Amino acid sequence: MRGHRGRRRSGGIGAGRGRPLVVAALVLGVTLVAASSVAVWRGQGVSEVGTDAAAELTAPPPTEAGDPPVPITDGRGGSERTVRPPVTLSIPALGLAAQVNQVGITPETGEFDVPPSVDQVGWYEYGPGLEAEAGSIVVAGHVDSADQGHGAFYALGELAPGDLVEAADEAGEVHQFEVVAREVYDKEEIPLARYFARDGELRLTLITCGGEFDPAAGRYQDNVVVTAVPAP
């Protein structure tokens, strides 16, 4: 997992539509940025760092006999699960303070949903919340929009190892995470099962679009993924 991923330029998470990918038995569609997005951002030549560190976080920890397998394959958290959703997300290095919405799958399209306002971000409500001790807490956001300009994650690709990300819950408790990796994937090649997993070490996964904008397809060609772990 080094360097830019293959450039087949189709499908995946991001603006536009393509072949859906399956994670946790849900078709997580292809729209993380509104289909109205245009080449406001135009790609920033995001490089990769910390790919080995990110990969090491996905190894599942030992579980006791009888524990249910993860991720839960129907996308639901189970009736006994008590979830503490993030309600705000702050990234001091980017001067970002964004409202976090709970999002899931759009029933009509089977696509991963995100807030219509590009200055807000979406937490995948069927995955781990801030109470979790394992797995990937997923927050996705827009990079830009034709109508609204820069999105909350416009500069996500500028984050570097050591930068801090702060997520606050409804009680006002702030959970601090430290960036360990920044990766770039062709949309068709992003390993969604890895980034939406409920096992492995606890981490915060931030996803947006990146790469060059394809005017014909109406979408960006890559995804930028930033991984952060609980700060010491």
> In CATH, what is the class?
Mainly Beta
Name the helicity range: under 10%
Instruction: Identify the overall geometry.
Output: globular
Quote the average pLDDT.
Answer: 75
The total tally of domains equals 1
Q: In percent terms, what proportion of residues is strand?
A: 25-35%
N-to-C CA distance: 26 Å
Number of DSSP-assigned strands: 14
Main beta-sheet annotation: 8 strands, mixed, barrel
Order of helices and strands: EEHEEEEEEEEEEHEE
Question: Structural class of the helix and strand makeup?
Answer: mainly beta
What is the correct CATH architecture? Beta Barrel
Radius of gyration: 16 Å
Q: What is the CATH superfamily classification? A: Sortase
Low-pLDDT parts are 1-43, 67-75
Tell me the strand order in the biggest sheet.
Answer: 3-4-7-8-13-14-12-11
- Count of DSSP-assigned helices: 2
Structural account:
Keywords: Hydrolase, Membrane, Transmembrane, Transmembrane helix. The chain crosses the membrane at residues 21-41. Residues 59-71 have a biased composition (Pro residues). By secondary structure, the protein is mainly β. It has a single domain (21-58, 84-230), classed as Sortase, Chain: A (Beta Barrel), CATH 2.40.260.10. Helices cover 4% and strands 35% of the residues. It contains 2 helices and 14 strands. It has helices spanning 51-56, 192-195, and strands at residues 21-23, 26-28, 86-91, 96-103, 105-106, 111-112, 121-124, 136-141, 144-145, 149-150, 164-169, 174-186, 203-214, 219-230. The strands form 4 sheets. It has an 8-stranded mixed barrel. Strand 13 and strand 14 (219-230) form a beta hairpin. It is globular and about 45 Å long. The two termini are 26 Å apart. Residues 1-43 and 67-75 have low confidence and may be disordered.
